[in-house]
């Protein structure tokens, strides 16, 4: 098998890539990058991504990092599925939401995920109330915009599933452990319920069982 995906499935950024690969049914070899053991800092992994971050796609001696770049690349492998539109305006719409995810949504979710889950998991102490408040402020601002946008839409870019849905949906796998305040955002909850019902989403959740920290 020529394609490998190096990932820690419980991480939303890795989940994004794995769930999308599973959804399009592309064959790949899963390689666990075990963050609990510092695998991302090994010389072998650093040769794939100098930033020492996962996920990484490896194919025929070439490596690609940044989760949104990976899923866009994967989408080109199955153009007939229409998950990355060929129409320029439709593609620009998808790209807009993926840029928004990287710049705003991922960042706001990541603060709460780190403070309320990651720190305890890695034995780095309890949540910092100042950081939690900052995370809540950011989350509510961007969630308000997302919730409003989703009114009348089945998916992020209309009535058709796209790579943008996988990008924006992935952080919500941590909604419960990070206590993301979704109660006020009915449209997000409705949209995410549809996304999480996808067989590939459920398949990837089984891969994402958190290992015990070393």
Description:
With 214 residues, this protein is of the alpha+beta class. It folds into two domains: 3-82 and 202-207, Glutaredoxin (3-Layer(aba) Sandwich), CATH 3.40.30; 88-198, Glutathione S-transferase Yfyf (Class Pi), Chain A, domain 2 (Up-down Bundle). Helices cover 53% and strands 8% of the residues. It has eight helices and four strands; from the N terminus they run βαβαββαααααα. It has helices at 12-24, 43-48, 67-77, 88-121, 129-150, 163-169, 186-196, 199-207, and strands at residues 3-7, 29-32, 56-59, 62-65. The chain has a four-stranded mixed β-sheet, covered by helices on one side. Helix 1 (12-24) links the parallel strand 1 (3-7) and strand 2. 36% of the residues are buried. The mean pLDDT is 93.
- By secondary-structure content and strand pairing, the structural class works out as alpha+beta
Task: Please trace the helix and strand order, writing H or E for each element.
Answer: EHEHEEHHHHHH
Task: Note poorly predicted spans.
Answer: none
CATH class descriptor of the largest domain? Mainly Alpha
**Which architecture of the largest domain would the CATH scheme give at its second level?**
Up-down Bundle
Total separate domains: 2
Percent range for helical residues? Answer: 40-55%
Strand adjacency order, main sheet = 2-1-3-4
Radius of gyration: 17 Å
Summarize the biggest pleated sheet: 4 strands, mixed
Percent strand equals: 5-15%
- Overall geometric form: globular
Number of DSSP strand runs:
4
Q: What is the terminal-to-terminal distance?
A: 31 Å
Supply the number of helical segments: 8
CATH topology of the largest domain: Glutathione S-transferase Yfyf (Class Pi), Chain A, domain 2
